Amino acid sequence: MARPYYVTTPIYYVNDVPHLGTAYTTIVADAVRRYQLLRGRDTRMLTGTDEHGLKLEREAAAKNVTPKAFVDSMSQRFRDAWPKLLVEPDDFIRTTDERHEKLVQWIWEKVAQKGDLYLGHYEDWYCVGCESFKTEKELLPGNVCPLHNKPVERVKEETYFFKLASYASRLLDLYQAHPEFIEPESRRNEVFSFVKGGLHDLSVSRTSFSWGVPVPSDPKHVMYVWFDALANYWTALGGPDSANLRYWEPSGEVVHLVGKDILRFHTVYWPAFLMSAELPLPTKVFAHGFLTVDGQKMSKSLRNAVDPVRLAQTEELGGADGLRYQLLRYVAFGQDGDFDHRAMIERYNADLGKNLGNLLSRTLGLCVKLTGGKVPAYTPTGLERDFELQAAVHKTAAAKAWSDLQPHRALEETFALSSLANQYVDRAAPWAEAKKGNQERVDTTLALLLATLRDLSVMVWPALPRKADALRAQLALPPIACQIGRDQWPEGSTADAAGRALGAASPLFPTISDKEQEKALLDRLQPKPEAAAAEPPASVPGTVPGHPAAVPATTAITYEQFAAVDLRVGLITSAKKVPKKDKLLELSVDLGEEKPRTIIAGLALSFTPEQLVGRRVLVVANLAPRDFGKGLVSHGMLLATGPSEKLVLATAPDDAAPGAKLK
Ligand code: MSP
Description:
Distance between the termini: 64 Å
Bound molecules: 5'-O-[(L-methionyl)-sulphamoyl]adenosine
Shape: globular
Helix content: 25-40%
Number of helices: 21
Strand content: 15-25%
Structural class: alpha/beta
Largest sheet: 7 strands, parallel
Radius of gyration: 29 Å
Oligomer: single chain
């Protein structure tokens, strides 16, 4: 029998609420796990929250609550969200759980006993957003972290080092001997070159804050948050004596699903910690890409982070099943992808409504008319098209795609089978056969279609668990129930015994055909585009006075007039509030000139100074200086849109050089 199967998601930082990005991995893990359940495997799925570290300690302080109270309430948001997406983990671990803290200390001791920890002093750059040290090479000008667009901090303190460098050759051996350890391949190559480039020992404890797991023998130190967090995958199983350890290697298959941004932690640090503690390694780390929404990066400051629960409650688009389908089918797992609201409606209509939903309703409708609402008798006919439909289930590559962690391909295959069945209805035309009095043909055709729908209900279950059961109810079949050792994956369409009365038909995925309804849905779901021109642009000081909407759309300027505006990319290197001015911030902006310029901008109602540092903005560089009094002179203007309390900045990508001219 296949080994027990253990799939994990990253544990999520609780400084944020669940959003579409975190929901994505969690849904994939749940779907992949459901596939393995169908195959009769003993499975386990783990998710949870990452609750220690400087970032969370600061976030709690900013909210004036204790770190514990803060993480308790935030962690609950994740715990509550997942069932609404039909995600059913077996366990939800929190790094503040006592069970975890004890075991991570046990791992620490093992690493210490191995002689892999030593006390020293550390001085380097630290990004609190990443909770990771950064080398200067990794930073943007102005010591800005490229992932968080925020300046890093200088950290200097006593620390325990982990002898990571001494594991480089064992890690390289691992990647070579087990290419399946890191997927996709491009990511493996990336990690391989990184390790080949040489590793430095890793600082794994901190003394300048206390929100972490105490180092057992030296409690003025707390463990580095990643040492603590990575261990969750193992500690959640209950430690060395737990029966759940059967899910870990070598008796179990361990699959970590992670985003590409945290690949290195999982494929370099984590196996090295485990090697040092003499614990078996996971089987695979699979890194997926990043999701954008309607073509835009999701971020708190753009206020476009999509709430997955709200989408899952949109019954018009299939509810949680509908959301799961969109994410699983239309984002190729392993690559970056876009979640497009308009496309979501089109795809819902086409795949779920007009393909699978239609197959069900027309088959049931025909059974009501032509077979008395019962499963008809199947008589083998030797007809090519019957054979083709039966063989299609057998031939589908969906199972392989699921086990290769390619849900998008699995669903492509599954829905291709549904299309084939729809074509089969058209070609077999049972209504015409009925007119000719050819009842045997009618029965066989419908028996085969019902069998295909039954098989499809199993095949879509990993992605659409609730709708799969609703489909089965209409076929008068029990809900899917999995059992260890019982493989339910359909092998080929064998018709059911005749005579079962079918259930009541009702549209599984009613389509959205009305443009008005579509528009209303889009309005409801899409993160609101920041209404340009909603406020006089005086909110961004330096803007030419006057409401932009007052400029008729037809007012044309010559190319020369346009070319006279010197638009440039600027990198904000510092920002601070202007005393006694609620709306104003004083920025230093690097325009590639000898020194940064001072720009006074009306951004304070929308951004904190920290949110701006490191951002690449678009600047009108040749606007006459504007004097704000008290020695404050603005030497340029940033482009932005929206009302003053909800401004969206026009920005340039990370690779645009400060001072680059826009043309
Ligand atoms: N706490 C660490 C993980 C520790 S695992 C031992 C962490 N947490 S996180 O909340 O910041 O991110 C969790 C996961 O969400 C990462 O895998 C990250 O890639 C993923 N995503 C965050 N935004 C995302 C998108 N926009 N798209 C896809 N996934 C994204 O890192």
